[in-house]
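Go through this fold for my students:
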Amino acid sequence: ELNKELVFFHLSVESELDNAKGKKYGLGSSGAVTVATIKALLKFYKVAYTPELVYKLASLAHLSVKSNGSFGDIAASCFTGWIAYSCFDREWVKKKQTEMTITELITMPWPDLMIRQLRVPDNLQLLIGWTASPASTTHLVDKVNDKRQDMADFFPNFLAKSKTIVNDLIIAFDQNKTQAIKDGIRKNRALLLKLAKHTGISIETPLLEKLVEAAETFGGAAKSSGAGGGDCGIALVDNADTILPLFKQWEADGVVPLPLEVYQEDEGAGVL
């Protein structure tokens, strides 16, 4: 579409998103690799890009393989830092794909898409614990979708409450209110537990429950990450002195603390 001649290239991928035994950490590696590949090819073909352009191209790539995730991992890889996110209207995008070129589609606003940076309180830290139990987002989302018909009364209410909690969280970040942020995480976790109870699907595994309980013991707020069912949990703490004791408790419970921090790309980095 851009009238650029296709040429041969060699692409290699090096990942540190698994442990020494090859077990994945559940950190959104498929989204990260998609974003990295698209950025590499755009640079290779000397095409200027923005985080939004990369996000839309990566989302179209994942739609093409019938991915049913939220694409939040893609947004995080594209925009970096702490972000507030809501997914676009998939059916609208799929319909437009049949009516226009990719070039036209990616320059249009996508209904319901929202990605914005969050201001993070200086004392707030994100901790990640790994359960060493792999989970499939696609599988878990499919299981929930299969039961939506049986939850005609519960599910709309669940979505409405989830939206309210997320909106309140965004406001808490905007107002630099650490306690309100932690309370939002707790409310989100409680709502997910209700979903698990209604569907009979394990979202918070016993090890994730221990991860949350330990975080609460040391003044933090925690929940399962992604679709749940294994992989990682996240904890927000605002007292640095509690981190090492919390990590020790996690290790005693069988949770692996991951030495990770939130990455924030410099403004304009990578843009040609």
